[in-house]
Structure formats: C-alpha cells, structure tokens
Specification:
With about 250 residues, the chain is an alpha/beta fold. Helices cover about 35% and strands about 15% of the residues. The protein has a six-stranded parallel β-sheet with strand order 3-2-1-6-7-8, sandwiched between helices. Helix 9 runs parallel beside helix 10. The structure holds 2'-O-acetyl adenosine-5-diphosphoribose (OAD). The site of 2'-O-acetyl adenosine-5-diphosphoribose has 27 residues, from helix 2 and strand 7.
Length: about 250
C-alpha cells in the first residue's frame, strides 16, 4: 500500500488534468448503501427489475416513487465525508479537475466540487414521466418514508403526467451531453482516479479503459481488490474516506 501510495501521489502531483470517476463507494462512509456489496448493497435487498426500469415504474409507479423518495430523503439528510472533501480539495492543487460520477446524491457538489458530470442523473431533479418537464417537489421534512412504502407520484402541472425520479434507469440511454463531456474529459486527462465503483455498469465502465487506451494512468481506490489489465493501473486498497486524504497529503503537503 505504501509503495502504491507513493507512486500514485507522484502521478497526482505531476498531473495537469485529473478525472475523478466515482461510484457508490465514495458515499458509503456518508451512510448511503452501495448497490453490489454483499449483504449491504441495495441490489442484494431490492430487485432492480421491480424498481429501476421504465417498465417497473409503469407497472407500479407508487412503489417506485416511494422507493426513490426514501433514497432522496436519505441523500438529503447525510453529509459529504472526507473522501468527497478530498476530491473537492484536489481543485486547489491541480490545474484541471473533472468529476464524472455515477452517483445521484449530489454529495460531490455539497462537498464543494465545481464541475460535476452526472452520468446517471440526480435524485434531486424529478421530472414528468410524460412531458419530461422538471418538477419542483420538496423533500419530505418529516421522517423519510420506510423502504417499500408506496407513495403516489405528484402530478405535472403542465400535462398531469406522473413525476419520476431524475435518474437513469436500466434500459435507458445516458444523457447525451453528459456522456460526450465525460468521454472528452477522459480522452484529455493524464490521471483517472476511479473511486468506489465496481465498474460493472456500461457504458460508464468503459471510461477507465478509455483512459488507459489514451495513455493516462488509472488509480483505483477501493476496499476490495481490483482486477487490473495494464501496468498503468495502480490500486489503493482501502475506504475512500481514508485513502483519499492520505493520497492528497502525500502528494501536496
Ligand atoms: P457498486 O455497488 O456496483 O460498487 C460499489 C463499489 O464501491 C464496490 O467496488 C465496493 O467495493 C466499493 N466500496 C465500498 N465501500 C467503499 C468505500 N468506503 N470507499 C471506496 N469504495 C468502496 O456501485 P457503482 O459502481 O456505483 O446505476 O454502481 C454503478 C451503477 O449501478 C450505479 O450508478 C447504479 C447501479 O445500478 C443506476 O442506478 C443506473
């Protein structure tokens, strides 16, 4: 770990443009469950086919809306952790930093990160399922709804369609502009820091491969071992909230 940390810190220090590619693991220490961790991951407790597809929403909108409202209230309640804060702090040391996140919780922004590209949308931006107009729906101020609770989606003032969460579901395309911007940033970066992702969901998971192809160094931060394919990949094993502050300290202080 020490040797990898030193090597990673050296790349960070020399970098002109760093892309942070983040996944659910970066928010784990804030108290938000990941998707695929055994036992604690959301997809080990809930069926994505019943909750995270357009067909699921059409079949049972109240179940799907209730589940996302539970997650939205939770995201609203928790705080960014030292991992998010270290990522935001990178902008003070590196000429260009681009955050490309698969997360929908907005914790990077709340930690102070500037430009954040959202590949999977934001849970805080509900819109109409029918006409796609953005809808302003306050987060429930009382206790968050229990998981599994059915909640009727509010109706659109424009067309009376149902509100849907502003996230990308399985079977839906990524937002084109975000995807193009992410692709371009990765093509141009010299270091890609892949934090807290299983890199199991495509097309997002293509990005670390693209970085390698284009000659960048990829640093993985994960408590679990990460399989690597190139000599330009470095693995820092440990939770983001510990590894990232250590990495910054080593590189810049
Ligand atoms: P996953 O749940 O697939 O992966 C989370 C990763 O974070 C795993 O590799 C964990 O080992 C790691 N991890 C756990 N705790 C960590 C910590 N404290 N610090 C660093 N890493 C930690 O989540 P994602 O890769 O984000 O998509 O999943 C990708 C997409 O699949 C999500 O955006 C979501 C999901 O279905 C949609 O909803 C469209």
């Amino acid at each position: 770990m020490l040797e990898s940390l030193q090597t990673a810190a050296r790349y960070l220090k020399q970098a002109e443009h760093i892309v942070i590619f983040s996944g659910a693991g970066v928010s784990a220490e804030s108290g938000i469950a990941t998707f695929r961790d055994a036992l604690t991951g959301l997809w080990s407790r809930f069926d994505p086919q019943r909750l995270a597809t357009p067909e699921a929403f059409q079949a049972d909108p109240e179940l799907v809306w209730g589940w996302y409202e539970w997650r939205r209230a939770q995201a609203d309640r928790v705080q960014p952790n030292p991992g998010h804060i270290a990522i935001a702090e990178l902008e003070r040391h590196v000429p260009r930093v681009t955050i490309v996140t698969q997360n929908v919780d907005n914790l990077h922004e709340r930690a102070g990160s500037g430009r954040v590209i959202h590949l999977h949308g934001s849970i805080h931006d509900p819109r109409c399922f029918s006409c796609a107009r953005p809808m302003q729906i306050p987060v429930a101020e009382t206790e968050p709804p229990a998981d599994g609770q059915r909640t009727p989606p509010p109706r659109c003032l424009n067309c009376n369609g149902m509100a849907r969460p502003g996230v990308v579901w399985f079977g839906e395309a990524l937002p084109e502009e975000a995807w193009q911007a992410a692709w371009q940033a990765v093509e141009e970066c010299d270091v890609l820091l892949s934090v807290g992702t299983s890199a199991a969901v495509y097309p997002a998971a293509q990005l670390p491969h693209l970085a390698i192809e284009k000659g960048a160094t990829v640093i993985h931060v994960n408590p679990q071992p990460v399989e690597t394919r190139s000599e330009r990949e470095i693995v820092l094993i440990g939770p983001a909230g510990k590894s990232l502050p250590l990495l910054l300290k080593k590189a810049f202080y």
